[in-house]
Amino acid sequence: MRAIDFTQRHRLQQGFTIVELMTVIVIVGVLAAVAIPSFRDILINQRLAATASDLVSALNIARAEAIKQSQTAKVTPVTSDWNKGWIVSMTSGSTTTTLRTYEKLDSSIVRDTTSGNGFSNAVTYDPNGFARDATTGKFGGSGCLTFKADTKRRMSVIISASGRPRSCDPDKSGDCGSDDCNSAG
Asked: How far apart are CA 31 and CA 21, in angstroms?
């Protein structure tokens, strides 16, 4: 048998020592502990953006259908609570048809009642595509609805005088214009 010196034996051994393995596990654990909370915030902020996008989509559907069918279309909250979702419907005479129903909000997102008028609890589009205030029936934008996430980030949906909806950040100076969406909440 031939003798193998220490350096050759060391080269033949492969793998990690327990100390090296534990060091890697500790480093991965520390990085995960730092990354997971910020990843949660990213997910919640994405849900907030998706919620505002869904409402803009619902308003666009209602506006397009009102113009296409020359009838009144409406976006209303489920049981007068935007947190429980909303419904897009068409009204022809005394018949109301539901076009689309949106699910309730994620538990990490709620309507911010300190900012905006909540569209007076409905948005109505006339056959020309103009938004009307659901309470007064007057033309010219129906106001603002703001959502707030657990991360304290907010997103608003506003309707222009012509009836076109868009989302904006009420905490960013001038992003929502100069309406009541800009009030601090």
From this structure: 16
**At CA 70, angle to CA 68 and CA 76, rounded to 5?**
85
pLDDT tens digits, one per residue of 136-156: 666 666 678 899 999 999 999
Residues whose CB falls within 8 Å of the CB of residue 90, separated by 6 or more in sequence, listed in order = 65, 66, 69, 71, 72, 73, 74, 96, 97, 99
Report the predicted TM-score, pTM, of the whole model to 2 decimal places.
0.77
DSSP output for 112-163: EEEEE-GGGG-EEE-TTS-EEETTT--BS--EEEEEEETTS-EEEEEE-TTS
Please classify residue 63 by burial: count the beta carbons closer than 10 Å to its beta carbon, then call 0-12 exposed, 13-18 middle and 19+ buried.
buried
**Strands 143-149 vs 109-116: parallel, antiparallel or unpaired:** antiparallel
Give residue for tokens 């309707």: 159
Residue listed under structure tokens 């595509």: 129
Torsion of CA 29, 107, 90, 156, to 10 degrees: -80
**Encoded tokens for 56:** 């803009």
Q: Are 106 and 47 in contact (CB under 8 A)?
A: yes
How far out from the chain centre does Cα 94 lie? 34
Q: What is the pLDDT of residue 119?
A: 77
